[in-house]
């Protein structure tokens, strides 16, 4: 069985776990602390990014984009109307643009700083940057959430799913990131009812269940986190 | 004819121009100053990244990954042994990993800080961060070059091209970034003869010619920059 090196609070890892879940592909999960830059992990992926998937023949796939494209080519292509990357090149381009938006842009603006300050720094040793959260970084990241939520609301309000009429990688990437922010209680859902309705639908999918049961040591999720009717 | 919004000193833009050149696809070039975040440009690509390609039907493709995948699906697929993204899923994964390495990791470690400090800051107004280069950033970025050059040398020494036996996106992404560093005279080629031999081969391709003739206002390239036998 392939091994997926992941972290429960890495959006890119959650995204790939959701894709694997949707396609029914089992993997063995191994948690990796991304700040450790563990020598044997860097041998697998010199860039040090998560997730990394290693198959039974020790072939290595590094990072969410590479893994998602590989899964589309080897599994998605057989799924017909359940394929998570559309068939049309322009549709595929729009899905990829949105995946990048959520895993790169929103990650840099919001998700990464909040997860790092509120979760990773609790677990990191002081020599690697652990310690109390930086209130300036928290404030800046929180200031960016509203804009991103507005964009998701706009997408969810104008289409059934974020990239069009069918569930796609774009929904899974967005929900992966949002689920971390929701865990931390950082989202005021009342301000974004269209985003909430869409997230409720994605969150109710069986592929989402494992994510909703995981807990981070020392950080209790917001009360509605695992609630499918929040 | 499609329009490509680019900047001559953006590695991602150079990469896509090389791909278009290799596939013989003509585009109209429009230079965009990435630091301006021009309103009409942000409408095309909310993430503000370069390059952006707009086709005759005003369909927009944002960023190097999205454009490269689109070009593979619409042109590459017809090119047989001239296809720049291999056929085998694992080969494709390795090519994509390396493209990301050069356009994300090396970009963050080396190319972006050097281009920003030495070129962009000359042209940016002080209100947007323009001014004299920060010597601490220059020192850090220069310290990272050697490691990246060593990696390229190792790849070039163990394979004909960086991702295997055929020219691929990986070579074009690496050469796009290196060409900017070379313009700035930041590369000590004598230290990396295998990387130099490989770069010389890529640089000699007709697709490279337009890049070698462009000049940045106020910054003269190193004397061997356009020299095919440096």
UniProtKB/TrEMBL annotation, chains A, B:
Q: In what residue span(s) does the GST N-terminal domain sit?
A: 1-79
Q: Quote the InterPro entries the UniProt record gives.
A: Glutathione-S-Trfase_C-like, Glutathione-S-Trfase_C_sf, Glutathione_S-Trfase, Glutathione_S-Trfase_N, GST_C, Thioredoxin-like_sf
CDD domains (UniProt xref)? GST_N_family
Q: Where is the GST C-terminal domain?
A: 88-222
Gene Ontology molecular function: glutathione transferase activity
Q: Could you tell me the keywords of this UniProt record?
A: Transferase
The Enzyme Commission number assigned here is: 2.5.1.18
| Record note on quaternary structure | Homodimer.
Recorded hits in PANTHER family, A to Z, give: GLUTATHIONE S TRANSFERASE D10, ISOFORM A-RELATED
- Protein known as: Glutathione S-transferase
Please report the organism this UniProt entry assigns to the protein. Answer: Rhizobium aquaticum
